[in-house]
Design goal:
The protein is α/β, with parallel strands linked by helices. The protein has one domain. The chain is built from 8 helices and 10 strands.
Length: 229
């Protein structure tokens, strides 16, 4: 069984979805500390030919709390308004805006579950069949940290392969995973370009941008535009 483990991020970029699509089971890592100024509750969209950040309001956010201990605020309608203003001329605006409104107006105040819901809804929209599990629901040794905790999760779920984002090369050792009979790979996303509006292409935006400007078949191709190292 191939496993992926990532913190829940708000409408993450295509590489996150490539990872989800590449594994059998994806663990939403919700019982780890919230990171301020990270991408857990923010991402970037296209606005007037430039990258603009959208941020989900939080209540009680602290780096001393787990992600699943933080509450969602009340600015979802403001985000929806911003998305409408910036993407109303996009070719797939109608169906994607309905999807995003369903997500953003979800009456769920737990941050981890709110973002977890968004991940599962978009995965369904993209016809991704991966199973999702919250790390807080896995029986594991919570005294472990970093790589040791990830290896323990892999062992609890009987994973034979673990795939991480390319940034994890500095965090995880293939030798250490091999000693536990787990194959470790890193997913390296290729640069993906597509037609936005009349602007020069702006890369590395939220999955929202890709959904707005690309068909289901085009996105399916993008999900495979990576290499494992």
């Amino acid at each position: 069984m191939t496993l992926g483990i990532m913190q829940p991020y708000l409408f993450p970029y295509i590489g996150y979805w490539q990872l989800i699509n590449a594994v059998d089971t994806f663990v939403i890592y919700d019982d780890v500390n919230y990171i301020k100024q990270g991408y857990i509750n923010r991402n970037s969209i296209l606005s007037n030919g430039r990258s603009q950040q959208i941020t989900l309001e939080l209540i009680g956010a602290s780096s001393n709390k787990f992600i699943n201990e933080i509450k969602v605020g009340n600015n979802s309608r403001k985000i929806i308004k911003s998305l409408k203003q910036n993407y109303i001329k996009a070719p797939y605006f109608k169906e994607v805006s309905e999807l995003l409104e369903n997500i953003l107006l979800k009456e769920e105040k737990n941050l981890a579950k709110f973002i977890g819901f968004s991940i599962e809804e978009i995965a369904t929209y993209l016809n991704i069949k991966t199973q999702f599990i919250y790390s807080s629901n896995i029986k594991k040794d919570n005294e472990l940290k970093a790589q040791d905790k990830v290896i323990d999760i892999c062992k609890q779920l009987k994973a034979t392969n673990y795939i991480n984002a390319i940034g994890g090369q500095d965090l995880y050792s293939k030798d250490d995973f091999n000693r536990e009979n787990i194959q470790l790979n890193f997913l390296d996303t290729e640069l993906i370009e597509y037609k936005q509006l009349k602007n020069d292409f702006i890369p590395y935006l939220s999955i929202i941008d890709i959904l707005m400007f690309n068909s289901e078949n085009e996105i399916k191709e993008m999900l495979n535009n990576y290499k494992l190292v």
